[in-house]
Amino acid sequence: APQSAQARSDTALDRLMQGAPAPLAAGNPASDAVNDLLNTPV
């Protein structure tokens, strides 16, 4: 079960997030821009 669950979790989004740690690092201007975008009141 764990192996199949891990395989299912290996989606395009997961691969994207695995490749994103650098831009999403704390203090990174890109991270600040993303935070500002996500925290903007609708």
Describe the structure.
The structure is a single chain. The chain has three helices and no strands. The chain is mostly helical and 42 residues long. The protein has one domain (2-38). The mean pLDDT is 63.
- Biggest sheet architecture: none
**Low-confidence segments, ≥5 residues, pLDDT <50?**
none
Number of domains: 1
Distance linking N and C termini:
40 Å
Chain-averaged pLDDT:
63
Number of helices: 3
Provide the succession of SSEs: HHH
Quaternary state of the chains = single chain
Q: By helix and strand content, what is the structural category?
A: mainly alpha
Radius of gyration: 14 Å
Shape from CA axes?
A: elongated
Organism: Escherichia coli
Protein name: S49 family peptidase
Give the key terms:
42 residues; mainly alpha
What's a quick, concise take on this entry?
This is S49 family peptidase. This protein is mostly helical. The chain is built from three helices and no strands.
